[in-house]
């Protein structure tokens, strides 16, 4: 029998889910919280590289990577051996109470990726939402202000602080009551749907205007604002890149008013866009940068990296039991070695390769409205009609489902977009296979119109 370690292309042998997969799904339904929203019935048994194998021996090409987490692919041997070695030496000591060399080691590596104009310090947590929570606290602590500005369509997490910033789907907030006060949302620059018809690099000037001339004049004065938090490419919101000039304008406004500029790189960071951080493309210097997902190939660790001048809080003001756990740090160090040792360059190369081949999809397929993104963060927006741009969530779901049944894992994103975020290790053969499956799935979905 071929296993995930021996193949790099998908093969589907049973109806999906297969009989063993069905058993797992029934078992799960009995015990697991129904709040989890699985788009389609993938049951993972083992995985290697960009291939996920289910319990029935079906092989899937993974263009979801566990929501952009498995940056080095599944179970990369260097990551596995780093985890195994560290697990045999020291699993946990609580970095909040004691020292271990692994925390400063990883912090030093992360700081080396930051602009050289400043000194930086790092706080480790366990998940993206924790990085967001910590950044909100740090921004408030260091500015002694409490107001926060975020964007419609953004996703920053689901704990109550980060959820106050998240403005993605109302189900994520419904019935959870009053969230943090002092949070204002403004539109995110979305060039495909820009009311003023601005292109990919010009869109957003009107939002900067709104911020400076409406929000700051009518709602709260800029000197009350602790932070503006932004995803350089909205992930959950539809893989929508902000124009570089928009990020530069945010930096100008933040610098002018002493507001912290927080870049949420939880999904876009760690080399996925061809640079370590997606904000690097804009040449800006944020005050606080958040990372999680791709940092440790699937081990739970997150970090926020802040200017040393900002991270000046007193012992006891913030801490966590597990953050910077030695095993997760070992996985992160091995992941960074791989990303900086070639995978980031591969993300750029394979991203260019894929965009060259799919850039004409809006011409080729009447339900594809837009193709966008950077590197291996690839978004495809599905519409009912290209001229009205009517959103077609049902067709999007069909394409994702069709792709799954052909052996390709993708994820929905935003109301009607598909995200492709493969591991950074993919090669041309795998890219071609994914493109072929996507084209077949889109064509098949168009037939249902
Ligand atoms: C940009 C962004 N920020 C924060 C989060 C929250 O991360 P987590 O699910 O690890 O809490 C996510 C998760 O999708 C994200 O995409």
Describe the structure concisely.
The chain is of the alpha/beta class and 449 residues long. The protein is built from twelve helices and 18 strands. The protein starts with 18 loop residues before the first helix and ends with a helix.
Shape category: globular
Fraction of residues in β-strands: 15-25%
Major sheet details: 7 strands, mixed
Oligomer: single chain
Low-confidence region ranges: none
Q: Which structural class matches the secondary elements?
A: alpha/beta
> Taking all residues together, what is the mean pLDDT?
97
Figure out the total of helices.
12
- Helix-strand pattern, N to C? HEEEHHHEHEHEHEEEHEEEHHEEEHEEEH
Care to describe what's here?
Helix 3 packs antiparallel against helix 9 (326-358) and helix 11 packs across helix 12 (428-447). A hairpin with a 5-residue loop joins strand 8 and strand 9. The protein is of the alpha/beta class and 449 residues long. The longest helix has 33 residues, at 326-358. The mean pLDDT is 97. It has twelve helices and 18 strands. The relative contact order is 0.15. Pyridoxal-5'-phosphate binds at residues 67, 127-129, 132, 155-157, 231, 235-236, 264, 266-267, 292.
């Amino acid at each position: 029998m071929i296993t995930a370690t021996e193949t790099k292309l998908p093969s589907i042998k049973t109806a999906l889910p297969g009989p063993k997969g069905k058993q797992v799904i029934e078992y799960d339904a009995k015990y697991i919280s129904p709040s989890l929203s699985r788009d389609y019935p993938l049951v993972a048994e083992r995985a290697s590289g960009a291939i996920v194998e289910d319990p029935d021996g079906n092989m899937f090409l993974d263009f979801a990577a566990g929501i952009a987490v498995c940056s080095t692919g599944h179970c990369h041997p260097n990551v596995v051996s780093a985890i195994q070695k560290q697990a045999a030496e020291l699993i946990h000591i609580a970095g909040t109470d004691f020292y271990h060399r692994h925390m400063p080691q990883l912090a030093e590596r992360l700081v080396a990726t930051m602009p050289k104009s400043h000194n930086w310090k790092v706080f480790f947590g366990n998940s993206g939402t924790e990085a967001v929570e910590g950044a909100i606290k740090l921004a408030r602590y260091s500015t002694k202000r409490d107001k926060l500005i975020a964007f419609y369509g953004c996703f920053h997490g689901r704990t109550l602080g980060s959820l106050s910033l998240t403005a993605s789907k109302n189900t994520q907030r419904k019935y959870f009551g009053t969230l943090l006060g002092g949070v204002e949302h403004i539109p995110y620059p979305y060039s495909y749907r820009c009311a003023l018809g601005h292109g990919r690099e010009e869109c957003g000037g009107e939002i900067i205007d709104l911020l400076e001339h409406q929000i700051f004049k009518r709602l709260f004065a800029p000197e009350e604002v602790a932070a503006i938090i932004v995803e350089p490419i909205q992930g959950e919101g539809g893989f929508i890149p902000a124009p570089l000039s928009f990020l530069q304008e945010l930096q100008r406004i933040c610098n002018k008013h002493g507001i912290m500029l927080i870049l949420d790189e939880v999904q876009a960071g760690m080399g996925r866009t061809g640079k370590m951080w997606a904000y690097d493309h804009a040449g800006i210097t944020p005050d606080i940068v958040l990372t999680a997902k791709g940092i440790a190939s699937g081990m739970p660790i997150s970090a926020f990296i802040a200017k040393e001048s900002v991270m000046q809080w007193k012992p006891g003001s913030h801490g966590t039991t597990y953050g910077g756990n030695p095993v997760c740090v070992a996985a992160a160090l091995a992941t960074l070695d791989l990303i900086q040792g070639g995978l980031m360059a591969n993300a750029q190369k394979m991203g260019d390769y894929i965009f060259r081949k799919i850039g004409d999809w809006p011409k080729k397929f009447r339900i594809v409205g837009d193709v966008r993104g950077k590197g291996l963060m690839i978004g495809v927006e599905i519409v009912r009609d290209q001229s009205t741009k009517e959103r077609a969530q049902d067709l999007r779901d069909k394409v994702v489902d069709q792709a799954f049944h052909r052996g390709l894992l993708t994820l929905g994103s935003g109301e009607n977009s598909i995200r492709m975020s493969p591991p950074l290790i993919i090669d041309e053969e795998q890219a071609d296979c994914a493109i072929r499956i996507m084209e077949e799935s889109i064509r098949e979905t168009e037939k249902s119109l």
